[in-house]
Amino acid sequence: MGTPQSHNSSFYGLATVGSKGQIVIPAKAREELNIATGDSLVVVGIKDHNMVGLCPVSSVEEMLVQLTQRIGEMQEVVDKTKQKKGR
Description:
The chain has two helices and two strands. By secondary structure, it is an alpha+beta fold. The protein has a domain at 27-86. Strands 1-2 form a two-stranded antiparallel sheet. The longest helix has 30 residues, at 57-86. The model has no long low-confidence stretch (mean pLDDT 90).
């Protein structure tokens, strides 16, 4: 298994929800996170804490590929363990 990745977080400022429910992502955040006009973002939230986050679709797709690979690796270990016990 690989090593855990460190998380480099930043605070970019505040955003205000407008009358149409829209927010403006601060320019520094868009620049550092490579978010461009027209990009699609996945909106995620933690309802119990009233938290919302935005993730570029490409990042979510990459994460899903990695998770799928990890699940495959885990399935192989489970299958090998079952084979050994069946002997």
